[in-house]
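User: I've been trying to design a sequence by hand for this structure and keep getting stuck. Would you show me what you'd pick, starting by listing the structure so we're on the same page?

Assistant: Good idea, let's start from the same input. This is the structure you sent:
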């Protein structure tokens, strides 16, 4: 089993706009902001491609009890923050789907099913999916999330999945597409382009 094959959680809530996943993993294995992931949909006939934009630590009774104590020993702190598997919830924006070997950059026809396993997209699939930049329109259209930060993180993730010799050219192409999409807001564009610098 490769790291790409290991599930990073299961779907708890979903819609065609995105899904929420929950997992208990040790901290080094948590997904990160801007991670591309996939969850099975349509009885295995397709996979929804998500872009993780929010992570939160869910209620934990032991953590609440420890937080109420006057002082924590280094051992208690290490056990709580390093050794224990913390319940993590994350939200992913649907940015496309895979049908067979083909990626489509639009909202999926159906959301994933509840409890469907969620996996990171492999570097090879990140390269294939982000070869086209139509998914940027789906991200920019969302109001209630940190869109510019998410765009920058997603494009940096996409660039990192490519050979080093191709990264700069990819980011230049992505910056040009962002300029086309948000060009009327020069302050926003300048901030976005600055965040894409390697």
């Amino acid at each position: 089993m490769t790291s790409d094959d290991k599930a990073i959680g299961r779907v708890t809530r979903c819609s065609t706009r995105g899904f929420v996943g929950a997992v208990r993993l040790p901290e080094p294995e948590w997904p990160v902001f801007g991670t591309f992931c996939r969850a099975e949909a349509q009885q295995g006939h397709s996979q929804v491609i998500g872009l993780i934009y929010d992570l939160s630590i869910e209620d934990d009774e032991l953590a609440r009890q420890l937080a109420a104590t006057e002082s924590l020993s280094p051992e208690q702190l290490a056990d709580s923050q390093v050794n224990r598997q913390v319940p993590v919830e994350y939200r992913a924006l649907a940015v496309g789907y895979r049908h067979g070997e083909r990626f489509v950059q639009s909202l999926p026809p159906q959301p994933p099913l509840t409890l469907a396993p969620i996996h990171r997209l492999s570097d090879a699939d990140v390269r294939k999916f982000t070869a086209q930049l139509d998914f940027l329109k789906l991200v920019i259209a969302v109001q209630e999330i940190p869109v510019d930060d998410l765009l920058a993180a997603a494009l940096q993730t996409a660039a990192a999945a490519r050979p080093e010799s191709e990264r700069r050219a990819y980011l230049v192409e992505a910056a040009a597409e962002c300029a086309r999409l948000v060009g009327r807001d020069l302050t926003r564009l300048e901030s976005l382009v600055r965040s894409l610098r390697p």
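That's my pick for every position. To get oriented when you compare it with your attempt: DSSP finds seven helices and seven strands in the chain. The mean pLDDT is 85.
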